[in-house]
Amino acid sequence: MDGVKGRVCVTGASGYLASWLVKRLLLCGYHVIGTVRDPANERKLAHLWRLEGAKERLRLVRAQLLDEGSFDDAIMGCEGVFHTASPVIKPSFDPKTEILEPAVKGTLNVLRSCKKNPSLRRLVLTSSSSTVRARDDFDYKVPLDESSWSSVQLCETLQVWYALAKTLAEKAAWDFCNENNIDLVTVLPTFVIGPSLPPDLCSTASDVLALLKGESEQFQRHGRMGYVHIDDVALCHILVFEHDGANGRYLCSSTVIDNNELVSMLSARYPSLPIPKRFLQLDRPHYEFNTSKITSLGFKFRSIEEMFDDCIQSLVEQGHLSLHTAHQRPTFKVAV
Ligand SMILES: NC(=O)c1ccc[n+]([C@@H]2O[C@H](COP(=O)([O-])OP(=O)(O)OC[C@H]3O[C@@H](n4cnc5c(N)ncnc54)[C@H](OP(=O)(O)O)[C@@H]3O)[C@@H](O)[C@H]2O)c1
Question: Could you tell me the pTM of the whole model?
Fold first, then answer.
């Protein structure tokens, strides 16, 4: 542990990314108030209580994104708030109710609680690179940076609800924080890859498992995509919280790669897995990300090989995946 630090709140603490962020914050010495929907759900929260420092410095409290004032108690007295809670689901019948409202109204609900807290130094919002790249009017020879915003109109036309929700939520956060003088920094991760701490795989981790088991549907749709290690995303949140000079938006991405390049890298590394060989090429604009804003703060991203190695190792150890031959990664405990 780095030494005892102040009190911070993490919303949606039991989620995939937030659990890792809680782990890193505890290791740094912070006192963490995590909000969860059901603090009595022992199965869903056991992984948080097992974290180093949790018994001494973690408190879990109930909060719901759409319940007005629900985050007041959790946030009051915290010097930092990490707002990660937001639906990452495939909408079933009503995307506006299932995704848009919790993301946008829920963010404003959290911000109103931040406004009531005189101890707040900085709010870090987990946004997404989907708030940057969903547009068709950019020069593909120039890497996209934080000055780029996805087109709300294009998102609506294409019905890409997640990108629309994240874009509207981040814009609403900037408007609210500018009006109310709240120090906001946003982190814009690409597709997060790495070990999962929660017992159930979240939507994106399930998609990765499906790919490794030979299902191509989701990654066919992804086409070209940026990827980032889950530990890098957590560390990036903490860096921009702690760094006095951090401000504005920060893209958080290691590598942008076409789905065909991704599967050829993975198949070569894990020949025993039934990873799809090729995807149909989609007619979508080529893009890269310029991450010099975060790297200029001294941040270094792990490689795409390392993030998938760590992810696959943990899927194997958790019994989600089996490598039929034992020779690829000698350090693995192979599930049988
Ligand atoms: N995974 C990625 O590749 C990726 C990439 C870029 C950005 N992000 C962002 O990272 C954040 C975390 O996502 P994740 O991948 O870790 O997904 P996740 O595991 O599904 O986490 C989402 C969290 O939000 C909470 N939540 C959802 N609706 C809620 C509501 N109505 N009230 C209270 N809490 C609610 C969930 O609570 P429950 O556990 O109770 O469901 C969960 O803790 C999100 O803001 C997401 O947009 C993720």
Answer: 0.95
